[in-house]
Amino acid sequence: ANLALQEGRLAAAQAELNNAQLQLDEKQMELDQVQAMYDTAMKEKQALLDDAEACRRKMNNATALIEGLGGEKLRWTASSKSFQNQIISLMGNVLLATGFLSYSGPFNQEYRNLLLQLWKKEMDNSKIPYSNDLNLTGMLVDNATVGEWNLQGLPNDDLSIQNGIIVTKASRYPLLIDPQGQGKIWIKNKEKNNGLQVNGSFNIFRYVS
In sequence order, what are the residues at sequence separation of 6 or more whose Cβ sits closer than 8 angstroms to the Cβ of residue 176? Predict the structure, then answer.
């Protein structure tokens, strides 16, 4: 009788256990579904955060670019205006440069400046535009070339640099009045790899092609 009683209790307990396991399985299924929904939502959230950060970077880059282009617009506008002025003054500037190369070689700095002033006065009378702040040296030679000339022995004063421009740019053969021999040293160093020959004791230069 006791065995039958215990078996009945065991059967009832087993039935409750089975029922509880079924409920647990159902809840686990619901939990798995909710967990999957949560994981999907978290992935969507992270994707949105990544998109938001990417958009923020793009906005910052776009803002920096717009601000930079704003500054460039001012620079381009100023450059365009400067180029327009250069175009207007180009004919007069070239006229002054060619006059300098053709006629100012034999003279000292003072007389060269006087020639430029006289030419500018004639150009004003003829209404030929030119740049008031024209720098003939800067127009005819760059700083790198001047630096190379200095290394070759040419002095760094304005007159010597102008003489170097006339020697290298003018189509006529230059007459060098060189009492200190600086021009001779410079030409020897400059043209030593180009077949320069010095004839006799009179230091007459000629090129050999």
Answer: 163, 167, 183, 184, 187
